[in-house]
Amino acid sequence: MKAGQSFKDNVFNTCVTVILIGLAATVVFPLLFTLSSSFASSKELLLKGVVLWPEEWTLEAYRFLLDNAQFTRAFYNAIYITAVGTLINMALSTLMAYGLSHPGVKGRAAVNVIVLFSMLFQGGMIPTYLVIHGLGLINSYWSIWLAGAIAPFNLIVMRSYFQTLPVEIKESARIDGCGEFKILWRIILPVSLPVLITFTLFYTVANWNTYFQAILYLNDANLYPLQVFLRQILIVNSSELGLVVTDTGYSYTPAVPHAAILLTALPLLMVYPFMQKYFSKGMMMGSVKG
Fold this sequence. Notes:
The protein contains 14 helices and no strands. The protein has 290 residues and is an all-alpha fold.
């Protein structure tokens, strides 16, 4: 027992530790199962069903996916959608948040109400589809990028953070002859790095996980992102998708779905550790002032 802690404190800390270990196990076990199964042989998976440590490690599933044209095309589509979509999201959100952070902007209050209303109440699937169809964006990535170009929550937090910045900095820059775009680029953005990286991560995850909008607005299977391919490979029979044998002879195995899950999650798992240190700081800085 630690000095200064009562028996009740120790019991409480022990219970919290046990609960956290249990919650961590619920996360680690599926990940370990998927990771191990992706390297297991077909025979072992068919016999055991659950494999936590393969007796025979093999890369057959990964070779099959990397040699499969559908998977590589979907992977490229996901990267393209995420890169361009995140750039559009951050550019529009930053510009709008910076504009709404100025008290003297005409119509600012009305626009803020509209943003808040759109966060609480959405138009619905059918009206949104009719708008996208009316704009001629069906079967185009613009239907994904423009429909979710600005997330109201992200915009409100970014606007709130910009409002906390000292007004004197902007005024001194204007006296030196800087325009609003130069102030934003040279002064505001450099000091807002934690907030910008935080919402870049938010938008990146949202774009990478694009699924429903893709199946709703994209009719060409060659345009499908990785999440749609993952859904097909997990639910639809592999023979119906033409995923039995690749052109160079790699065969579909029961480990392929597990390998597909890991390869789908791998890019975000690689990016997140580098952005984690900015995450909490960015959220706190953006929530100081409403």
